[in-house]
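Q: Convert this sequence to structure tokens.
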Amino acid sequence: MMAIEKFMKEYATVYVSNKNEKDISNLAKAIMETGIKEKDAYHVACAVMAECDYFVTTDDRLLKFQSEKIKLVTPGEFIRRMEADK
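A:
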């Protein structure tokens, strides 16, 4: 939990700030065109802007979204991938 808090304090304003608002909004709108709900689309857009490799979710609808920029996976799939990379 401390690692997440540290990351948010150091990096959240870099990706989720007024200067990136237009890019995030445009990306989120493109994601919403695939049927993803607005809040979920903004979450994924922020993760893409942050250059995350993975977006971990249990939302079945969100897991159907495919992107070359980020991999949407379940918590179990994420753990399997991380263990395989060791």
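Residues 2-84 form one domain.
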